[in-house]
Design brief:
- The structure is a homodimer.
- Chain A is mainly α and about 190 residues long.
- Chain A contains nine helices and no strands.
- In chain A, α1 packs across α4, α4 runs antiparallel to α5 and α6 crosses α7.
- The longest helix of chain A has 27 residues.
- Chains A and B meet through α1, α6, α7, α8 and α9 of A and α1, α6, α7, α8 and α9 of B.
- Chain A binds a DNA duplex (18 and 18 nucleotides) through α3.
DNA sequence: GTCTATAAAGCGATAGAC
DNA sequence: GTCTATCGCTTTATAGAC
């Protein structure tokens, strides 16, 4: 087992890793107990709603991170291209250059989605819309901006799948580079 | 429960749907029993290796389908552009225009990958390489062909994630249209 | 707050009747 | 082939001591 986790922030990060690695169903309380060093008693004290509440809190934490490090820069950066560059850097950091998968993506694919439908839907729509707005501000016409934003967000998710299938993070970093390039030079006027 | 399933082919299809909808961990034998109308006795008679063998057989069936309807046309079509068009049509059909997710993609994202590593890796690498070869035959230079092939395969996977997160299959069909377009007009010279 | 003990249900898998 | 009954284990969750 890992060292005993003291701070709540640290605990939520650890829970996120477990859910990412095993999915909601595969993340059993015994695994969570072992990896966090906290007994069931402690876990249910901190999360009376059990596993569902743990996942909910992790999802909210992930959403808050993206809001702060991705969506706000996209929306508010004076230079939209700089906001977009900021997004790609944040994404590379967050997904550990392709060694980490997207928790929201994993949850979205199977029936776990039905438990957390609102959070999952909002995460992706907020991302797509913030990016589309930045692209539009950067000179894309509205239609092309929305299409490119969808392609980029989907491209990131797909690159995570591909990289993990090949156990090769470079697949992800290559894809990010190309997606970034597409936001710079494509489909103008 | 569904009607009792008679033919093995039909059974494998049903198993595929269950694994797609619930993931490997979420596809419990009780769910499988209920959805197929077959008791555990029958299931273990047909698949002595249990759930792992069921998933293995489904993965092989999916791989065989893609080999026949996607990879071979990509590799052997006299007109590479026709082979690529064939691929996109097959993909739309297979994923039910975005209402079905990719079984291999779901398995790839969490630790289920470790059980079926070889099949998962091969599925995506065979797809990417067959598409890259077709693009090269169609006039892309080798580097651009490989990059575009990765973008297309990742784009399809990501579009499935996005479509499901929004519960909107149109997200998928839109993405497919754009990806197809990119194989026609991009990065030539 | 954190632990141990325990409950009740569900899990994958097997045995054996038919 | 398909069923029912059952095994041993794990699951989520709770109770109660400290």
């Amino acid at each position: 087992m890992a060292h005993r986790i003291a701070k709540r922030d640290e605990l939520i990060v650890a829970l996120g890793e477990i859910f990412r690695e095993r999915g909601f169903d595969g993340a059993s309380l015994s695994v969570i107990t072992e990896r966090t060093g906290l007994g069931k008693g402690s876990l249910y004290h901190l999360f009376p709603g059990g596993k569902a509440e743990m996942a909910q809190v992790v999802l909210e934490e992930v959403s808050a991170w993206f809001e702060k490090h991705v969506f706000v820069p996209l929306r508010e950066s004076a230079d939209p291209a700089a906001g977009i560059a900021h997004m790609f850097n944040a994404v590379i950091r967050f997904f550990r250059s392709g060694r980490r998968v997207c928790l929201v993506g994993t949850f979205a694919l199977n029936d776990t989605r039905d438990r957390f439908g609102a959070e999952i839907r909002t995460y992706f729509s907020a991302w797509t819309e913030a990016l589309a707005a930045a692209l539009a501000r950067d000179g894309f016409d509205v239609e092309a901006a929305h299409a490119t934003a969808e392609d980029v967000v989907a491209g990131i998710q797909g690159a995570l799948v591909l990289a993990r299938s090949q156990q090769d993070p470079a697949v992800f970093t290559r894809a990010i580079k190309r997606l970034h390039q597409r936001t710079r030079v494509m489909q103008r006027d």
